[in-house]
Amino acid sequence: MLNEFKAFIARGNVMDLAVGVIIGAAFSRIVDSIVNDLVMPIVGAMTGGGFDFSNYFLPLSSNVTANSLAAAREQGAVFAYGNFITVALNFVILAWIIFLMVKGVNRVRASVEKQKAEEAGPPPADVALLTEIRDLLKSRPAV
To answer: Where found, per UniProt (predicted)?
Structure first.
């Protein structure tokens, strides 16, 4: 069983996954900073200042009288919907950033493929002949 485990760990997929998890954790901190340090202050300025989703909650116990979420949690159960809004906003920003990254990579990849095709020159004679035959067969009416 130990040898099987070594073989499993040595596979490239496991290492790729580990690298992805590590980079994902670091990327999560970047997104948190974008939300907390850039987006939320702008939202706060647009809504009259002092707007912070993280302290929005509904007390679920009559013992909860605090105004901040941390203090309210110490007093009893709370429904912390503001924290959910912050996490959802983080997700939307993260999804947008990943979308832009994938779009950029696809654009670069298409450019590289186009450049390779231009450098390759015309296809060999046999490929050109087969392409012509294919196109002629496509243009024939179905029998």
So the answer is: Cell inner membrane; Cell membrane
